[in-house]
């Protein structure tokens, strides 16, 4: 394998994972960030993102002399053969991706890039951005490549090192091949294509995943009404290889830093070319309705939400992260607070104060005096709580498990009434 000199601009979870993993594959990597404090902390091996194995790779890469951190993109790219742009592309006005960070960095590095360098867009960017970046760089000798990431938060390092596939797109086939070769050691299928197609893969994949989840959440609602159990239904569906078992769990809605942003951006991309992408729109609407449905279930458990005391278990958008961005758990909590419920919340990774609720450092404190408890994030530790103690602390007896995560027997033994999603028999369960 060729060892390449690589720059990574942006040390968020995508950039830092990319930089640390490429260094672990043997490349020489310089990572840049605008945040001087962050750079200093990374040099000292301090990683603020909750991501298994990432801190170890950051320390190991620096000890081996293959990984360095600098402040400012222009200092990182000066000797780079390949530059990865791993910058935030948040949802901007009207749902479109905000590209200002990508544009600013393109301006910053255009005069400093070595002759013949390759610039790789790793951030999720609308179709056509590679061409736009090439225009901004204004360098005939510099090729632009799209190499979307498919990393899940909480397993980003594992996903990077064991990818299902590598997608590389460029209007310069040689550049695409050179970028693809960086990952040869991973042994994954590498799909080379044009830049627009590579940009589209990411949106098409994430919208499909979101659609799958909205579908499952809608099926779960039907299951409740016809007396079926969604866990059995999805297991039965999932053995069909065309469907697969993964991404079939109902929940309080999907969230996080990618799916909400990418579904909205896809609607905008379609609108821009005159297509009404109603399937993706319905996917988004179903997700918003899912949160309302959870609120409705809590309301039914306590009668009226105004003044009700609700214990909230979990705030992160999924277990294994400390990320609250577009967290459905947080959205549900905010809706409950908006309706006058008094919320006491516990999440093993969230300790900072939040508007509209009291955040406490123990699940037992969260449920003290609660009229009902709602579980919103599937943290493993919730399964092994002392439910008898929980029951004795609560003033009500209903637990709404929006992830179908808890052991029904443990709760029943504790005298609690457990409600899940998509698996309640209507006859048995008229109250909720
Ligand atoms: C996602 C994509 O998986 C990844 O490929 C992409 O690059 C970035 O976006 P991530 O945002 O880290 O990754 O989270 P993911 O694990 O995909 O979960 C997204 C949301 O769906 C979470 O809110 C999660 O709780 C929810 N989810 C996921 C379910 O409700 N049920 C499931 O079965 C799976």
UniProtKB/TrEMBL annotation:
* Stated name of the protein: UDP-glucose 6-dehydrogenase
Extract the InterPro entries matched here.
6-PGluconate_DH-like_C_sf, NAD(P)-bd_dom_sf, UDP-Glc/GDP-Man, UDP-Glc/GDP-Man_DH_C, UDP-Glc/GDP-Man_DH_C_sf, UDP-Glc/GDP-Man_DH_dimer, UDP-Glc/GDP-Man_DH_N, UDPglc_DH_bac
On whether NAD is a keyword of this UniProt record, the answer is yes
Q: What is its EC number?
A: 1.1.1.22
**One protein family per Pfam:** UDPG_MGDP_dh_N
In its UniProt record, a GO molecular function of this protein is: NAD binding
Keywords (alphabetical) are: NAD, Oxidoreductase
Matching entries from PROSITE patterns are given as:
PROKAR_LIPOPROTEIN
Q: What class of enzyme is it?
A: oxidoreductase
From the UniProt record, list the reaction(s) this protein catalyses: UDP-alpha-D-glucose + 2 NAD(+) + H2O = UDP-alpha-D-glucuronate + 2 NADH + 3 H(+)
Catalytic residues of the enzyme: 258
The entry sums up its family as follows:
Belongs to the UDP-glucose/GDP-mannose dehydrogenase family.
UDP-glucose/GDP-mannose dehydrogenase C-terminal domain mapped to chain residues: 311-408
Instruction: Quote the pathway field.
Output: Nucleotide-sugar biosynthesis; UDP-alpha-D-glucuronate biosynthesis; UDP-alpha-D-glucuronate from UDP-alpha-D-glucose: step 1/1
Q: Name one GO biological process term.
A: polysaccharide biosynthetic process
Instruction: Report if keyword Cell inner membrane is assigned.
Output: no
Positions binding substrate in this chain are 150-153, 202, 247-251, 255, 318
Binding-site list for NAD(+): 33, 38, 89, 124, 153, 261, 325
């Amino acid at each position: 394998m060729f060892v390449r000199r690589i720059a990574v601009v942006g040390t968020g979870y995508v950039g830092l994972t990319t930089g640390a993993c490429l260094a672990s594959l043997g490349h020489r990597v310089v990572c840049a960030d605008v945040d001087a404090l962050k750079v200093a902390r990374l040099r000292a091996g301090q990683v603020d993102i909750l991501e298994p194995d990432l801190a170890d790779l950051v320390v190991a890469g620096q000890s081996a002399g293959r990984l360095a951190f600098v402040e400012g993109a222009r200092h990182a790219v000066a000797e780079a053969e390949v530059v990865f742009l791993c910058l935030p592309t948040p949802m901007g006005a009207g749902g479109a991706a905000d590209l200002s960070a990508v544009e600013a960095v393109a301006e910053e590095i255009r005069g400093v890039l070595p002759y013949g360098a390759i610039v790789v867009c790793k951030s999720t960017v609308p179709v056509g951005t590679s061409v736009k970046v090439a225009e901004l760089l204004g360098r005939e000798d510099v090729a632009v490549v799209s190499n979307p990431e498919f990393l899940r938060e909480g397993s980003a390092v594992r996903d990077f090192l064991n990818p299902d596939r590598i997608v590389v797109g460029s209007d310069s086939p040689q550049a695409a091949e050179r970028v693809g070769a960086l990952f040869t050691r991973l042994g994954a299928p590498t799909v080379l294509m044009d830049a627009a197609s590579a940009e589209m893969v990411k949106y098409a994949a994430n919208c499909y995943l979101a659609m799958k989840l909205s579908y499952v959440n809608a099926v779960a609602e039907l299951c409740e009404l016809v007396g079926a159990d969604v866990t059995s239904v999805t297991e039965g569906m999932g053995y069909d290889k065309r469907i697969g078992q993964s991404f079939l769990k109902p929940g309080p809605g999907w969230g996080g830093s990618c799916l909400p942003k990418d579904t909205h951006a896809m609607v905008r991309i379609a609108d821009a070319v005159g297509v009404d992408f109603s399937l993706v729109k319905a996917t988004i609407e179903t997700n918003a309705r899912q949160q309302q449905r959870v609120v409705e279930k809590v309301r039914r458990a306590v009668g009226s939400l105004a003044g009700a005391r609700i214990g909230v278990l979990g705030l992160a958008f999924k277990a294994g992260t400390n990320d609250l961005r577009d967290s459905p758990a947080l959205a549900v909590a905010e809706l409950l607070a908006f309706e006058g419920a008094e919320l006491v919340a516990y999440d093993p990774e969230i300790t900072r104060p939040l508007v509209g609720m009291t955040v406490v450092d123990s699940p037992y404190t969260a449920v003290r005096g609660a009229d009902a408890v709602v579980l919103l994030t599937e943290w493993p530790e919730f399964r092994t709580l002392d439910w008898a103690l929980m029951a004795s602390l609560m003033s009500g007896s209903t637990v709404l498990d929006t992830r179908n995560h808890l052991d029904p027997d443990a709760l029943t033994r504790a005298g609690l009434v457990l409600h899940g999603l998509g698996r309640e028999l209507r006859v048995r369960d008229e109250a909720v």
